[in-house]
Amino acid sequence: MRKRIFTIVVLTAVALLMNIDTVNAQSAQEELYEKRFSLYRKTEAVTQVPWYMLAAIDQYERNTQKDSDGNIVSIAVPDELWYGAGNLMKLNENEAISLFQGKGKDGNGDGKANPGCPEDVLFTVANMLLEEGHSEEDFKIALWKYYRRDLSVQTISNTARVFKKFQRLDLNDRAFPVSTKYNYSYRSTWGDKRGFGGRRIHEGTDIFAGYGVPVISSTYGVVELKGWNRFGGWRVGIRDIHNIYHYYAHLQSFTDIKIGQIVKPGDILGTVGSTGYGPPGTSGKFPPHLHYGMYKDNGTREWSFDPYPFLRKWERMEKSN
Ligand SMILES: [Zn+2]
């Protein structure tokens, strides 16, 4: 008996400690968001570059780097650009950098441009954007000159629009991509071999449900693609602010969504169907299901990863609400 009570006490204590840990981790994350937000706003006040542009560039760089989650600001301006070509000693006094025609700027007024100082980095990036002008189009040109990649420019511009619309950085809610009010089933099938259209692997998870069951946006993001494809039938692609592309295929119908539209978790995109494996309109060659794929982009290439563990997590999150 005593042993049992002891076990219960220990288990309760462990549970409490774990809870405190989660709460601590959450508040540390919130603190980080607040710090970032106030730095973006401060730079906006000085340069007139909107905070959400700076937030989107920072977010993009954080997503394309490894292990930078805990940094306040993740933007890494290459040394040669920051200090100026020929400034091999990396002299960071304002006069030295301007002598070598570096882009590095002093944002916190200490007379030095330090690439490790978040205020200096944001001030520098804002000034690089302003080199092309003040409009959103001008910023796109500046981004293209910096990244030299259309997808990077598009992703940053779209992420900025999402931040602007929701006016906050913590956009971490998620939804299960098929309405959980209906019957559905799925299992882990990522990587399975597929016959149709030559040798391919299955780049997603199939969620089986009846015709007409709502297909739902799992994340915040922007519609990047909508239309027919021989394999996917009627499909929608949404890129989220973590630079992950979510692919929804074999839809029976679309709701009134357009390319470029901003979505949030829970928004209805269309309905489950069995379209695909032929010319536009082909349907019924397999049982109705949503094919859900996830692709990560690291700034140079894009690859498919297994959505199954995420689906399980989002399903649990929905059921606990
Ligand atoms: Zn599939």
Automatic annotation (TrEMBL):
Classification via Pfam families: Peptidase_M23
Bilayer-crossing regions: none
EC numbers for this chain: 3.4.-.-
UniProt keyword terms in alphabetical order: Hydrolase, Signal
InterPro entries: Cell_wall_metabolism_enzyme, Dup_hybrid_motif, M23ase_b-sheet_dom
Taxonomic superkingdom: Bacteria
Domain annotation M23ase beta-sheet core: ranges: 201-298
Keyword Signal found: yes
Keyword Hydrolase in record: yes
Signal peptide: 1-25
A GO molecular-function descriptor: hydrolase activity
Protein's UniProt name: M23 family metallopeptidase
Species annotation: Aciduricibacillus chroicocephali
